[in-house]
Amino acid sequence: MNKFEKGFLLGAATSAHQVEGNNIHSDLWVIEQLPNNQFDEPSLDAVDHYHRYEEDITLLAKAGLNAYRFSIEWARIEPEQGKFDELEIEHYRKVLAYCHEKNITPIVTMHHISSPEWLITTGGWEEESTVEYFKNYCIYVVEHLGDQMEYICTINCANVGAQMCSEALELQSNIPISAERQLLMTETAKAFGLAEENRANIFLSPRTEEGDRLIMRAHEAARDAMKAVCPHLKVGVTLSLLDIQAETDNNVEAIAEWEKDFKHYLPFLQKDDFIGIQNYTRKFIGDKNSMSASEEIELTEQGYEFYPEALSNVIRKVAEEISLSIIVTENGVCTKDDTRRVEFIQRAVAGVQACIADGIPVKGYMYWSLLDNYEWYKGFVKKYGLIGVDRITQNRMPKPSLYVLGDYCNK
């Protein structure tokens, strides 16, 4: 086994809403409680990472890993517009301090999908005021915790709304919307105090072009403001990127897809310190139509092709376009068979090491996820974690894959 060089950030990732539990002031918590919502189950206690973070970080450290990517929940820090909770800031200070105690480098994400309920009431991720609100929240956090931080991701999967183009077309065209869908939209609007005809613009909503730009302007504003307060911070944004493959190099559809997913964001990244890459699989595009996986291709329990090599392909494509340092902020596989997770990790890591050997500045790899957690609309049934969790007792059950990943670390 070839270990990474000393100083390479090797660890795992989580997000607050998926692991902490009881984020009662967030927009997703509101939606999860609606009778006709699209979530298979509510998050509730999740995996109680809010109270068990020491146990989880200890397991990470004992496996030999040296980094932990986690998010600060905006809805905890600012449960009401303009009112900040000092007790919650103190909680995250303790999380950061415990990371340092265990010689774990924290990589902090300021926004990971969930938002404060009040933000959606004021227009959410299509409203101009959100840029200022997000910037002010980020300033508050680094003013109080910046001395404990080094790496910050402003916004997780900043491009996810733009990737939902097919759903956006359904919402904005004359295609009839089902009665169930219309009822959900109406109930959601009411839950946020909006008029029935208005859409609740949560982060997972299909994004307009202006909303897409707004998110990146929020990233820029927060980045610049945080670095003004704490110049030592290394700040970047994370993008969800498929390995887009085509039969020919000049495939128009593939070129357009890469432009939509990545290249049109480049102007907003020029002052960043790194870019966070998140990849799980590839997408193959033929000359005329996208080609679905054949029966011979192994699919994960998420329905993705089992293709760890997608990550290194994406790293190389990104490196061709921009000279920033790269941190793999998410990469993983959904499976209950940990032997498949082990193989996925081994092949993905080999690809990362090959990229580094070729001179690409990859500085870190964060496996998704540290824990089997709440996988958004699919609830708790999807298993990505290096650590299993009995949700009745909340007991932690480390898997062999945790130690396989840890063996690559050279602290």
From TrEMBL:
Pfam families (alphabetical): Glyco_hydro_1
Keyword terms, alphabetized: Glycosidase, Hydrolase
GO molecular function: beta-glucosidase activity
One GO CC term, this protein: cytosol
Gene Ontology biological-process entries: carbohydrate catabolic process
InterPro entries, per database record: GH, Glyco_hydro_1
Family listed: Belongs to the glycosyl hydrolase 1 family.
Protein name: Beta-glucosidase
